[in-house]
Amino acid sequence: MSKLRNTLNVAIVGNPNSGKTTLFNILTGLHFKTGNFPGVTVDKKIGKFSIGKDVTIRLIDLPGTYSLHPNSPEEAVNLNYFIGKEERDSADVILYVADSTALDKQLLLLHQLLELELPIVLALNMSDTAKKYGVQIDINNFESTFGIRAVAVSARTGEGIETLKNTIVTVATHPTDRIKDHTSWYKPELEPLIEEVKRRVGIENSYLALLIAEHNNYVLNQWLKEEDRNSIRLLLAEAGYRPLSRQIEETMNRFKIIEPFVEQHVKQKFDHLDITGKMDSFLTHRFFGPVIFLIITFIMFQAVFSLAAIPMEWIDKGFVQIGFYLEQVLPEGNITKLFTEGILAGINGVLMFVPQIGIMFFFIVLLEESGYMARVVFMFDRVMRIFGMNGRSLVSLISSSACAIPAILSTRTIKNRKQRLITLFVAPFISCSARIPVYTMLLALVVPNVYIWKFIHLQGLAFFGLYIIGAGMALFIAFLMKWLIKKEERGYLMIQLPSYRMPHWRSVANEVKDKVSSFIWTAGRIILVISVLLWLAANTSTSGTLKGVERKYTTIAHQQGLDAKATQILVASKKLEHSFAGKFGKGIEPIIRPLGYDWKIGIALLTSFAAREVFVGTLSTIYSVEDESQHKGLRKKIQEAIDIKTGQKIFNRATTLSLLVFYILAMQCMSTLAVVKKETQTWIWPIIQFVVMTGLAYFFAWITYSFFK
Ligand code: GDP
Ligand code: MG
After folding, report:
1. Which of 61, 133, 292, 625 has its C-alpha lying 20 to 30 A from 113's C-alpha?
2. Is the pLDDT of residue 98 over 90?
């Protein structure tokens, strides 16, 4: 071990929120690859950087955990990593990251890691904040007491990073004497069990062997044969003790060492936890807490609407101008039309909603960064349990209001499998940003753009209502699933509330930028392709058909004495009706008639199954085709669309409300289904999800239409 290899493998370990990822990013300069840990769907980030000329570091970012007693597959990754045959041989140094403003709670995991025969470097992170709070840490004592080197760093300002790098190399070449304390966990009666595990797994470390035995459901599968696993379980039963009480005892013993150490060597001028505590007594108050949370979400939805209105108007008008201009400078013909009516209308349908989505993400990132989101988890844990979920589920559900995909991925942090399944099943009911464009457009048709009592924006309020309907349905289905799925593992919440901090504005800006641009690129690509295909489908048909339709209806218009404009509208709409798109829409019209939709909405519904936000783009393409002479904004066109047969507005109140209900409830996102399949490892759940959601959507849209008709 003392020989310096050219490449050192360094694992970053620490509690959640201690700044591991930020440190990882600053060390690797953001050059890394992500993959999955073997056997579990947990992100694995590996990056490389060099120190001096000779040493290359291969850095791995392990999932945050509070102790080596894993409670979820995600936390078990840490333990697996130290057992893992290939990985273990190559883990040369552990880089332990601790938040130096909350050291008393962050040293438990470190104290456990002392038992492993690996060199450890302690990064006392957030030294910038620590200075502000007047925290003083006597760094040398870590070496004399525990035999590890500590370095004060700030992953934010970059302070201490060079020293940290050098210390990693030093520790790898000259390991210090580890000072361990077996009394914290050692029980003589477990000796036979420990020896047996060591022999079967092929490891030498006794503490590790004990952890493997106790956590065999998360850990063993990967490394042991079935029979070996069983015999370990048998030995465990024979020893006749409960791992949980031993673990609690171990934890208390360790704190008996850690607490006096921190008390003696960490001095703090004034207690910032006091401020956090005072804020918490209000913000997580039994009554005020939930009320404040409701107010915050309410403000968020108000902002999404009122702040975004003006830039949205600019974008919509801007596109009309661009289209107008292009038609004048480009040669007349089908290619130009494809461009102005197909592509441009589609892009407008995406970009117009960027302000709203940006504001939404801004709020969510802000709440996470400031430390408030962790309180939300804590506050709503009990309530969420009524619905078969837990406090963490709420954060997944809230982030689902941006997009269901990251929300479903975030359910990995939910330990209990049943709670996790329920959460990822109902997450798509929460209205995501892709529904915002649809909601905005449809709401504008039925809800006036006014303020009540001068400050509540009525459309914003209605918008909030749509979210409530989706959330209500999510809870209702979750409640049903709680009774339907028979499987009881006890889940409990373990969370350390981070202290409140000012958000790092650059991180917030970056995060929002990333999320918005990924929305534009993922949604934009799909929308562009669909817009072009749709324009083609709306402008082509079996050979000769469209020419014939044009001749026939021009004649009819003449006979009826229609003026030029009316003639043109009649001809265009008849051509659309006989195009491929029209035939397609007509084909499904019988199915969607009961919901109040015509065949044109049918076309838009079908394209929505690729992604919901395509709906607005599709309608805009369809109505551009029909109404090409007028350069109106998209919303105006749709608002004024008339059903040729009845002479009534197509988007009347009943149809619009029914569509809104359909879009709240229907499962219309192929990417979400793909992610659910990936996370549950079976097609069963995405299929049930699709059938249940779309079935509910159809049913309630039908009720809504029948009621308002
Ligand atoms: P992880 O859960 O351990 O990966 O933690 P993150 O890297 O995601 O960081 C959690 C929070 O701490 C983020 O808001 C970071 O911006 C913040 N943070 C990380 N390192 C520092 C630091 O050195 N100083 C300060 N002030 N904040 C930091
Ligand atoms: Mg992280």
Report:
1. 133
2. yes
Q: Is the pTM of this model over 0.85?
A: no
pLDDT at 1: 42
Of 12, 13, 15, 17, the residue with max ligand 1 atoms within 8 A of its CB, to mutate for a pocket test, comes to 17
Residues above pLDDT 90, as percent of the chain: 17
Full domain range(s) for residue 212: 1-270
User: What would the pLDDT profile of 443-468 be if each residue is shown by its tens digit?
Assistant: 888 887 777 777 777 888 888 899 89
- Long-range CB pairs of 271-279 (<8 Å, 24+ gap) are 272/101, 272/133, 272/499, 273/102, 273/499, 275/499, 275/500, 276/371, 276/497, 276/499, 276/500, 279/500
Give the whole-angstrom CA distance, residue 389 versus residue 422: 7
Structure tokens at 173: 């070449």
Contact predicate 82/13, CB 8 Å: no
Q: Does 438 map to a domain? A: no
Q: Is residue 17 within 6 Å of ligand 1 at its C-beta?
A: yes
Contact 306, 460 (CB under 8 A): yes
- The token duo for 111 is 């104290």
With beta carbons less than 8 A apart as the criterion, state whether 361 and 516 touch: yes
Find out whether 152 and 160 touch, Cβ atoms under 8 Å: yes
What domain count does the chain have? 2
Quote the ligand 1 centre to 79 CA distance (angstroms).
23
- Contact assessment for residue 207 and residue 242, using Cβ atoms and an 8 Å cutoff: no
CB 430 within 8 A of CB 471: yes
Indicate the average pLDDT of the chain.
81
CA of 22 to the centre of ligand 1 (A): 6
Of 581, 578, 582, nearest in space to 545 by CA: 578
Look up tokens 């534009």; give the residue: 520
Final residue in a domain of this structure, among 225, 255, 270? 270
Does ligand 1 come within 6 angstroms of the Cβ of 668? no
Residue 499: CB within 6 Å of ligand 1? no
Residue 452, in any domain of the structure = no
Contact 607, 340 (CB under 8 A): no
Query: Which pLDDT belongs to residue 154?
Result: 94
* C-beta of 504 in contact with ligand 1 (< 6 A): yes
Domain ends where: 247, 270, 293?
270
User: In angstroms, rounded to a whole number, what is the distance separating the alpha carbons of residues 392 and 376?
Assistant: 9
Ligand 1 atom closest to the Cα of residue 22 is 7
pLDDT at 398: 81
CATH of the domain at 181: 3.40.50.300
Check if the beta carbon of residue 686 is closer than 8 Å to that of residue 677. yes
Domain contains 136: yes
SS3 642: strand
Q: How far is the CA of 19 from the centre of ligand 1 (A)?
A: 4
Cα gap 124→97, rounded to integer Å: 6
DSSP 108-168: HHHHHHTTSSS-EEEEEE-HHHHHHTTEEE-TTHHHHHHS-EEEE--TTT-TTHHHHHHHH
